[in-house]
Amino acid sequence: MKRWMATLLVAISLCTNAQINTDNVLLMGRSAIAAEDYLTAISLFNRVIEVKPYLYKPYYYRAYAKFSLDDFGGAEADLNKAIDINPYMVELFQLRGICRIRLNDYEGAEKDYTRTLAELRDDRSARYNRAMCRLELKRLDEAEADIDSIMDDAPNFYRVYPLKAQIAFERQDTTAGVKWLTTLTEREPTNTDAWSFLGRYALRKNHYARADSLLSKAIALSPRRHDDLLARALARHGMNRFGAAIDDYTRVVDLVPEHFVAHYNRGLILALVGEDNKALEDFDFVVAREPENTLALYNRALLRRQTGDWRGAAADFTRLIRQYPTFYYGYHARAECRRKMGDIKGAISDETVVARANLDVMFAKHKRRIVKKVRKGSDHSLDSYDQLVDDAMADSTELSFGRLLAKDLFGKVQYRTPSETELPPYALTFRQPSEEKGYRSIGFLPEAARLSSLLRSGTLTLTASAGTGNEDFEPHLTAAKQNNPSAADTLICQAVCRADDYDYGGAQTLLGRALTAASKPQTKALIRLQTGAVCIKSATAMTEMGAEETKTRQALLNLAVKNLKEALADSGDARLYILYNLGCAYMAQGDYAKAIEAFDEVIKTDSRMPEAHYNRGLAKIRLNDKNGARTDLSRAGELGLFGAYSLMRKL
Questions:
Q1: How does pLDDT run across 217-229, given as a tens digit for each residue?
Q2: Which of 109, 219, 225, 364 sees the fewest Cβ atoms within 10 Å?
Q3: Residue ranges per domain, the chain?
Q4: Which residues contact 36 (CB under 8 A, 6 or more apart)?
């Protein structure tokens, strides 16, 4: 069976040098926006920009598409280019103002709306949005002047009432603020924000029944606002309505599965009402995402001890003791667990620590130290481990109630469940690449093309293995007698077959033999490139199968790095792909700083490789550089990796 050799990545044509009718393509892009097909719109505007980068319209329309996909940073970058080309179009400043508000750049947004109002003095939405920006910048008198001018022109424009209330709260005039919001509920009973704020205000005053009533009205109007559900759960807990509070936390978790506060608080109440196993599930969730969270560990340790999971409880108390060596209750509790497990020696050791601590206190040699606060999430010390996390009430009197006066268009791709798995390395394959896995770039290597030509010409013949029943992915190669190809070529192609059949160990063996047989530097570079890719894939497969962090996996990744570094010496045309694979290897090792350095080199050479932008964005996320990650993911989405938008929205 004759087959063709190809590189793993398929080509996507963004544009050619051939002439295109830009007016028609722009019209098609605008039609795609109208149909909320923002991904198609972006690809169409990309074509126009590549041919005619001096036009402002494709940048403007692409910015609108990106804004609709929640890519506010990418939209602002496009609008900056459009304004550089044509600084006289007021709609550019209007859209950029909205983007800047979403990016919390209120000073920049205020300037954009001032520029808009210089030409459109009666634009109510621009004046309203500028008032919001000035309020966020604490320029209260200027914000109030904008609001008053709107109320003079439109007394029934009730949208400004929350802003008036917020200004009153900023001036510490709580009575006036509540009055504005109460008036708003009377004149516009469907205003969710007003009911929500009044309910939160009542909760802060510990008026639980009133808070429950007001928040229930807000929730009836907007059932999917999880912050209101969270606040109502706190109110219901204050009224000892534990079942109702648990129901609210469950609704929050249904809406936002990753919500830390809802899981934590629900776990506490479940433990309080005796639902220990369900409570453990919530604390397991919290600890899995925040392994150093003191409160979650403490509560889980107590629950595990209560349910007879002595080994699990001892493990949690051990982790707490490592963080707080003077946490003597932890030693006492662990001693009990160890005795239940039959570890008498360990129990005696813990009890000795507690006894010595008691003696120190008795003779005033050691004063009790304040335990430091939790790293994130709840902000409570171990002394108040059973307190609810009051996240819903944080800075509630400073919340912004304004809604941007712009049509919200949301595409669908950014609401998909994002994948936080890095894209795979470049490799040779006989399989048909799938765009679902993110293969978008052109992967062309002269050495791979030479092997392809040998297959096409019949110099190398690919035949099925006998008795396998799988002719596609378990083939082997035989050498055609008349041309007598090199042993290295045959071994490389055999190794590709093994890797396609997920026999990574066999592929590594064949590649090792091929490296010994190869004589040309470019062939050796290709072999090392493929070896690195196979090692990375093998290590990734171990992780996906649930294997623990093993020496074998680390050895595979070390071998990948070694081969890829050696390949750089003879890289030639393969250098770009070797560097990309090196970045993938560092990502798999968890060395994100080195991964970023490798992807930096790739992008310097070819800024149009979306996989490099995507993986660099993931590495930055893991280093908590969210702004840098957004920039990279925006570029990856612009270049065709549209799954980047769902990940960017999660940020």
A1: 999 999 988 889 9
A2: 364
A3: 428-650
A4: 68, 409, 410, 411, 412
